[in-house]
Write a structure and sequence with these properties.
Elements: H1 5-14, H2 21-32, H3 40-52, E1 56-62, E2 70-75, H4 77-92, H5 100-106, H6 113-143, H7 152-177, H8 185-194
Antiparallel strand pairs: 1-2
Helix pairs in contact: 1-2, 2-3, 6-7
InterPro entries: Tscrpt_reg_PadR_N, WH-like_DNA-bd_sf, WH_DNA-bd_sf
Organism: Rhodococcus wratislaviensis
Domain Transcription regulator PadR N-terminal: 10-83
């Protein structure tokens, strides 16, 4: 069975050292919170599934102060091999993910141009906040001396967000100024006319 993104994250953490699930959750949330959807319940379930597949195993329990005992886990050799295979495949092979936004752009002409401009400006505001949050998280990571190698996913996200912001800003300007002609009855007529078979071109 292919490793899920959360499974990859858990195995990656356990390749560093033995941990209990709550510590995995804390580290995963701090390092991968913008890259992988992480919920305590799903993390515990994934750890259990990985154990059932022989990719992790328990090493005993640990108690800190008056807290309840926590089961400790470590990665197995099979888990390390599965992680390396999965990460290698993800690094080398692009996978079509079919996100919603490109589809929305492809169908945006069905909405009037002023509304599209307004909506895209709203998206730009969201992107600005997202970029600020990613920059803040990166600065915090640097201040706590988290090695850059653990932050490459976030670097990628902020690079993509900045590129999208730049492209969208130019697109909004083109729509707003009329440099990008919007769908109109005249454009529809021209497209319809261009698809007509010229007279006499059809064979008898």
């Amino acid at each position: 069975m292919a490793l899920t993104p959360l499974g990859v994250t858990i195995l990656g953490l356990l390749c560093e050292r033995t941990m209990h699930p709550y510590e995995m959750y804390q580290l995963a949330d701090a390092r991968r919170g913008r890259v992988v959807k992480i919920r305590p319940g799903s993390l515990y379930h994934t750890v259990s599934r990985l154990e059932g597949e022989g990719l992790v195993r328990t090493t005993g329990t640990d108690r800190a102060g008056n807290r309840p005992e926590r089961t400790m886990y470590e990665v197995t050799d099979a888990g390390r091999e599965a992680l390396v295979r999965r990460v290698s495949d993800m690094l080398a092979t692009p996978v079509p993910e079919y996100p919603q936004f490109p589809l929305a752009l492809a169908e945006a002409h069905n909405v009037d141009a002023p509304t599209v401009v307004e909506l895209l400006r709203e998206r730009l505001d969201h992107l600005t906040r997202e970029i600020d949050e990613l920059d803040t998280a990166g600065a915090l990571a640097c201040s706590t001396e988290i090695p850059r190698i653990f932050l490459l996913g976030n670097e990628y996200l902020v690079t993509v967000a900045r590129a999208e912001h730049e492209w969208l800003s130019a697109l909004v300007a083109d729509i707003d100024s009329g440099a990008l002609p919007w769908l109109s009855p005249e454009l529809v007529e021209r497209l319809t006319h261009s698809r007509r078979i010229p007279s006499g071109s059809a064979k008898d």
